[in-house]
Write the structure tokens for this entry.
Amino acid sequence: MVRAAVLPAVGAPLEIAEIDLPDPGPGQVRIRLAAAGVCHSDLSLTNGTMRVPVPAVLGHEGAGTVVAVGEGVTHVSPGASVILNWAPSCGTCHACTLGEVWLCANALNGAADVYAHRTSDGSDLHPGLNVAAFAEETVVSASCVLPLPEGIPLTDAALLGCAVLTGYGAIHHSARVREGETVAVFGVGGVGLATLQSARIAGATTIVAVDVSPEKEELARAAGATDYVVASENTAREIRALTGKQGVDVAVECVGRAVTIRTAWESTRRGGRTTVVGIGGKDQQVTFNALELFHWGRTLSGCVYGNSDPAKDVPVLAEHVRAGRLDLGALVTERIALDGIPAAFENMVAGKGGRALVIF
């Protein structure tokens, strides 16, 4: 038996419960979690913005130690330190054959599986976004397991599984920020902080952080922001004033709200690029008129999982960590126990802090 945070139904509060995990079957791995990040996507699953089968154990950003492997698993062995990859590519769908593994049509098929049972009544449990990291231990497909490169602290490595891959990829793969360009990052949570660090790594000059909370300025500047703007109806104007009235080359939106997406777009120069990382609801409608689309010549693009290939990008990120260019610990503003997740969700809604990290 292991303890886990269970979502019994959409809109219901999380419950800390004991669950029964099976031994790993063929092609599966059992992992003892060291840490799991509390991501906004987990919150989106609880309120129905994103949907997965329930009851489910949430948590998709994690790292831990292999306990046991099933038949046919050869790339990791018991005792190995690993990172969880919640969106493994199948390698055969149309997107994968194009090399766009972050758009894999089958990446979340595992979320529909029954992977464990509640100890109290034997009821079926689904693995959230494939990996069920809000638990002391989990059993996952071997395709969801990446070996942890040497020299990376195991607990902080959890952040590589989502926040850092997303933020780094938004800068380097989606927006393709070039040295000397200017960048604005909207939303200074875990992903936003990773995006700021990644913009600094890319060699951006002016890096503007935008958030509703004045209290996050110190966090943002430590991550690489050269300027800080408290969000208001004048945000786009303030950003243009910081960039010679031109606007930034690139804006990255990490919030998922229509007004923020629109403001990010307006904050870029003529011909600028806006990358949307935040996950918004269907009710968040962004509108443009045909003339402004022509006149400004800007690009607006979505960004899934940082447009990243975890198998290729995690070793690159590990090298940045070892070289001191990427500080994983700086993303974490709170280290909590499993039963602290609901409070972490409340802080997220209130716009407080960066990443909360569950330590097992």
